Structures are given as structure tokens and as C-alpha cells.
Amino acid sequence: MSVEQRRPTLIDVARLAQVAPSTASRALKESPRISEATRLRVAAAARGLGYQPNRVAQSLRAKTAPFVGIVVPDIGVTFYSRFVKGAQEVLQASGYQALVMNTEREAGHEEVALRTLEGHQVTGILLATSRPKSAEPHIPTVYFDSLADGRGLAQIALANDQGMELLVGHLAGHGHERIAYLGGPPIFTSGQERLAGFRAAAERHGVRRHAAYVEIADSSWSSDSAAAAMARLLALAETPTAVVASADTLAMGAIAACRAAGRRVPEDIALVAFDDPVFGPLVDPPVTALRRGDYELGREAAQLLLDGLNGEIMTPAVRLPVELVVRRSCGCP
Amino acid sequence: MSVEQRRPTLIDVARLAQVAPSTASRALKESPRISEATRLRVAAAARGLGYQPNRVAQSLRAKTAPFVGIVVPDIGVTFYSRFVKGAQEVLQASGYQALVMNTEREAGHEEVALRTLEGHQVTGILLATSRPKSAEPHIPTVYFDSLADGRGLAQIALANDQGMELLVGHLAGHGHERIAYLGGPPIFTSGQERLAGFRAAAERHGVRRHAAYVEIADSSWSSDSAAAAMARLLALAETPTAVVASADTLAMGAIAACRAAGRRVPEDIALVAFDDPVFGPLVDPPVTALRRGDYELGREAAQLLLDGLNGEIMTPAVRLPVELVVRRSCGCP
DNA sequence: GCCGACTGCGCCAACGTTTGCACAGCCTGA
DNA sequence: TCAGGCTGTGCAAACGTTGGCGCAGTCGGC
Predict the structure, then answer these.
(1) Cβ atoms within 10 A of the Cβ of B291, count?
(2) Of B55, B99, B284, which is closest to A283 when you measure between CB atoms?
(3) Measured between alpha carbons, how far is residue B10 from residues A122, A138, B263 in Å?
(4) Which residue of A191, A267, B172, B293 has the lowest C-beta tally within 10 Å?
(5) Least CB–CB distance from B60: residue in A60, A119, A120
């Protein structure tokens, strides 16, 4: 009466094909020194039983699982979900599964995530959360957005300073002299680089420096917290004439804050953003922003890891360029 | 000279603590019949060595891995990435890791994904891709957006017809009589339900039926393809006065198409959408849409799976309500 | 003072797969 | 005729963990 619910194992296949398990294994693996007749018999048996190799057993024997951990701050954010998707594409093509972990931007979670991944014997890690000096995992790792030092197998990041130069240069080229920076807390390397890049670019373009012109939203990177920060900028006696938002969500919050305060963008205050927002061309006003190639970033990072696993890393530190997309929010004609 | 790179195993811990491996295992598991002294000795040894249990070996022995597969059409889409995040939250709290697979909306990929997950001995599956009749996995599965029949452990879906009633009712209440439907190809159950729900609601509200008033974008569900479909609607001799878009990306494409054609929304043509778009309040015009609770959906689905694994499914088919958020695009005052 | 119960621990098998090694049969060449 | 090589297959160990079972020692009750 009881139906055999157990999934068929290699032993079952071997028994059906009248060979030893080791022979069955070799036959399925296309290894040499197996006669054609046996190979066919085993293949038929496997097909007949609907045999699927047990990856867990394979991993145990191989002492490494076909997994790559991807650690991101928040997969609910469009950029990271695209990053993950891009990475998944190239990883799957090489037989790896992605194990995605969210850190919620908390150091403790990152620590737990890395240890969990180690416990699962992952082959490699893509670490996109990049606190400057978290404990280094004992597993081949590609760092995203953290070129701090020579950690891991390789590092990849956006050209944060090139981006800031593009944004600030564009605004300065249109005569803006009071330019503010609206960013998230600079706990990640990219945040630090963007703020530093902003300052350097401002200096280069002779933009007046003003301590109050750097506003930091809270660690949620949410539009709401950016709106609050923007409101503080608007409350200044001498308000800036332009704002550089270091992320798309922040730019959206800034627009909302301007509307609430009755300031028009770009007529009263110009706005540019580092990240190109989803539906950016359709918001009012369309946002001038830097385009990033989210998927490419993930693909590139994954490829870097795969290369590294094969010992073929050529460039251990890659910078991906960004591109300025001019729309209406900067006040261009 | 050679550094011991091998990660410490339970055997190492046992050796250091001068006990048998089985004793070490029990000591770490807080199982009874272990003296307090031994427990402490083992714990100290484990800590000293930085021992991390090998999950692969545990899984092999347990014949099931602490993984839950999550199969989605496209994690690059905001809704699914949030769904995944919500699910991950509750799964991790119960010690499961999420194994996310993209199907790219292709049946073949779904098949491969399911077999891969089985190979990895996952404990359960959240299937959010829901073709009406794909092969059923042999693993406890919660279906999202597919209440077709009594498959799997449980099913969860949005209240698609309630949503359509809200949208069509709202438009009809404002006097619209020529209402068009702009959807993606109805290959998934939710797409079919929305189209059917639209038709039923239109009938109920006495909206004139017109074959040309149903336009289907291509399977990419992209804004661009929606724009093309919208352009076809605008080219009609008697254009509709209102459009119901069955997804946020489609609504965005529709707005873009209207702009390109010089039609104003909502003055010339009203627009409502099933999904609340990211940054929806900021697009021009702000879109009247249904809000879904993306994260909650994922959380709920995961909880349903966990309950099912414990044999405590109360309601095998859950419908999550949606909520109408009225903004400007529908032409309300 | 003896028997039974209980406590604390070790032995061993098992999970499913892979692979080094051994071995049997056959063929070739001297 | 026999050594040596080649071909095809099987045996067994190993990966790290767990849990059933058994065993030695102690303790308590009669």
C-alpha cells in the first residue's frame, strides 16, 4: 500500500542497470573507461527512475557546494535586486546557485550572513555591503563598492569621483555657486567616496564651501528621511541653488520636500542625482542623473569571482564608469 | 610552514575537548544526558577553534537542507524583489535560507529551477511563477498567484477581481463609459484573473464592451511594449476615455505614450493601475492605483509554508485584499 | 549487600556520492 | 607460452554529522 516516496539514488540506478554504484557514477559523468553499452544502460536506468543527483551528497564529498553567496544591504532596493539578477545570470551559467542575504545595513547581520555562508560551504562570495573593515571571510570574495585596500579576490566599484565630477561640473557649468550635497550616512565606502568626490569636485570648480550645505539623511536611505534633510536645507537663510542627491531615493524625497515647501524644481532649485531612478523620465520633473548599468555591475562582479576561482584575475580592482543623463531637473534648457 | 587551512570539524572539537564526536555533537545541541562539565568543555573547545557546523553534512544526514526555494519570474522587478525580501525575513527567523531562482517567465526555466531545487534537497518551495499546469514538484510548495486547483500545500494570491472592481467601479462612478484594459499576456493565472475581473466588473457597471478595448503588451511586461500597445488604443477612431493598466510598468508606458501623442492625463484620458508604482506619487501625473503590501505578501507566503511544514495549515487558499489609492491620474478633483 | 534504575559517555552505522586502487579478462608481441 | 599492457568494472574509504544502542559506573531503596 505504501508508495515508495524516497527519491531514487545512484544506488537505485546502479541496481537497475546491474552495475556497481561507482560504475554508475562514472557512466553518468561521461568519464572514460566505461563501455558504451554500460553507459547507455545506466543512462536508461537513470532516465527511467527520474534520477536527480543529490547535490548535498556531492557537496559533502567535494567539500564545497555549488553556491555563491551574495550579500547585499537590501534586496528590496531596485539597484541591488538588479545587481543580484545580473550576478545570478552569469553564476547559473557556470552551474552555481546564488544564496542571497540581506544585511539591512547592519554590521551584525553582515557578520552572521558571512558565517552562515561559510557553514554552507559556499564556493565564493559577492560582498556588496562593504563596511571598510569587517572581518574578512575565509572564502574567495569579490568586494563591491569597497576599494579600500587589497582585500579579497578582487574589488569592483562605481567611479564615484568621476560621477561627482560629472554632476558638480554640470551644475557649475550652468553658473551654480551654492551647491548642496544630500547623502546617506557615509558608513559604506561608496558613501564616503561620493561625499569626498563631491567636495573635491566642488573645490575644482570653485564652488563656495559651506558647512551647512552637506545634509545627511538617516540610515534607512528612505525618501522620507531625505525629505526631512531637504527641508533643513530649504530652511537655511541662504538656501543652495542646486542640490546633488547621492542616491535616487534621496532625490525623490528631495523633490517631495520641495513641493511641500512650494519651491519649484528646477526653477527655484536645481536637482541632480547619482543614481538613475526607476521611472526617472516620468517623474515631475524628469531627473538629471547618472546611469549605472545595474545588471552589468552584477554580471561583472560575478565574472570577476569566476575568473578568480580559476586563478585568472587580471585586474583586481575595477571601476565602472557612469554616464550623465541630462533631463529637466537640473534646469538645462 | 604550511598553515592549517582546513576549517575545524566537530572531530577537532571533540579531540580538543577529549570526548567522542557524538558527545560533542550532543553537547553543542543542548541535548540532555550530558554533564554540565562536559558541555562547558565542548563549548569552550568549539569557541576556541572557531567551529562552525558543516551544514552540508548536517543536511546529508537529515536528508533535507535548511533551504527554501523561491521561484519568481524576475527579481529585477520591484514587486518580486520585495516579495522575496518579505519571505526571507520570516524564513531566516526559522533558520531557513532562501534560494532564489528567476524563470524569466519561461516555462522551461521554471522546470529546470524546480528540478535544481529538488536536487538541493530544499525543505519547501515558494512558487511565484504559477503557470496553470506545470509539473508539480515533490516538495511542499506554496503557490503564489495561482489558485487554480488544490495544488501544493497552500495557495496565496491577490484579490484580483476585487481589485478590478475597485478600479472599474471608480472610473464608472466618474461617468466613464469607454474603458480600455491594458495588460500583459495572460499566461499567468493572475493575468487571466485580472482580465476576467475587468470584464466582469465592466459588465456589472454597464460599461460598453468593445473588442478593441483590450490591448495586450508583450511578454516582457516592459514600459516600452506597453507604450506601443497604448499607442494602438490612441489610434482608434473612437478612443477610450479611460484605461486600466494591469501593472505599474504598463501604466508608466501608457503615460509615456500619451505624452508622445500629445494627450493629457487625466484631462484627455484617465488612467488607473493595478500595482502601485515605485515613486508613484511623484510621477506626472501621480497615478491612482491599487496598493498591495508587497512585503506582507512574501511574509504571508513564507508563513504559510512554515505552517504547512508543521502540518498546521488552516486556510489552504488565501486572498490578500488590495486598497485603492486615489491620486490625480484618474481625473478626480 | 544486592538489584534495578539512572547518568554520562563512546561505538558504529548511515546519509549519497566520488575516486584511488585492485583485479579480471583480453590482446599483443616477442 | 608468457610477460606486460590495456580495458572495463568493483571494492571500499572518505566527506562531517547524528542518533540508536550498549556499557560502565554510581546511587538509592529494600
Answers:
(1) 12
(2) B284
(3) 19, 18, 70
(4) A267
(5) A60
Cβ A45 vs Cβ A77: under 8 Å? no
Q: Please check whether strand D approaches the CB of B59 to within 7 Å.
A: no
Residue in A closest to B5 by C-alpha: A138
Share of chain B above pLDDT 90, in %: 62
Structural domains in chain B?
Answer: 10-53 (1.10.260.40), 64-158+295-320 (3.40.50.2300), 160-291 (3.40.50.2300)
pLDDT over 80 (residue B146): no
pTM: 0.91
- Could B102 and A81 be called an inter-chain contact, meaning their C-beta atoms sit closer than 8 Å? no
**What is the pLDDT of chain B when averaged over all its residues?**
89
Nucleic chain C contacts, protein chain B, residues 39-68, CB cut-off 7 A: 57, 60-61, 63
B141-170 residues touching A, CB cutoff 8 A: none
* A121 Cβ contacts chain C strand, under 7 Å: no
Do A50 and A8 meet the contact criterion of CB atoms below 8 Å apart?
yes
The confidence score (pLDDT) of residue A153 equals 86
